[in-house]
Design a protein that fits this description.
Layout lengths: L1 H10 L9 H24 L3 H5 L2 H10 L12 H7 L10 H30 L15 H13 L14 E3 L7 E3 L2
Antiparallel strand pairs: 1-2
Helix pairs in contact: 4-6, 6-7
Length: about 180
């Protein structure tokens, strides 16, 4: 009904007067939706950070060849995607697996970001500044920071230089000499 009114207003002709108008319009809408879907998925690959992540090809290929294991003690998303099939019994392609994983990761990122923003809005009312008193109330942000530091420590190794030579376990079979 709405489409008929718009067509009449825009081109001065009713859709009911055009043979197969419903089919033509339906096909047109499907083509537009397919184009939007294609561009959305294709454009994601143009985001430099996302496109450069080695995750997409290397991790999927390694897991398929059983050269890598999940860090999870349970089945993870990639395991589920690798074992998934469509209604016809066809396994997902690597691109479909990549797209699904990317959707999950980006949605999780956005959800986490929203939770952090909401927490700050609740703890620090409009116009006020974050203080040392209310910073401890930011539990979600604290958990995100702790997990980030666990996964990507800022100092994954500590290099030190001995000021003096030391022998650890001197006189034992496991003696270790630390040179200056």
């Amino acid at each position: 009904m709405t489409l008929s009114i718009i067509a009449t207003s825009a081109v001065g002709q009713s859709l009911e007067e055009i043979p197969d108008a419903e089919k033509i319009v339906s096909n047109g809408f499907n083509e537009v939706l397919d184009a939007i879907d294609y561009r959305t998925v294709s454009m994601i690959n143009l985001i430099p950070l996302v496109n450069k992540l080695l995750f997409w090809r290397k991790v999927i290929a390694n897991r398929q060849r059983e050269k890598s294991e999940s860090l999870s003690s349970n089945i993870d998303l990639l395991d589920l995607l690798l074992s998934a099939s469509d209604d016809d019994g066809q396994e997902l392609s690597n691109n479909e697996i990549k797209d699904e994983a990317l959707t999950f990761i980006l949605a999780g990122h956005e959800t986490t970001a929203k939770a952090c923003r909401k927490e700050v809005a609740c703890v620090v009312p409009d116009g006020q500044k974050l203080t040392s008193e209310n910073i401890n109330e930011l539990n979600v942000i604290g958990a995100v920071l702790n997990e980030t530091l666990r996964l990507i420590p800022p100092a994954p190794c500590i290099t030190r230089e001995c000021a003096n030579e030391h022998i650890i376990g001197q006189g034992s079979q496991n003696e270790v000499r630390m040179p200056k």
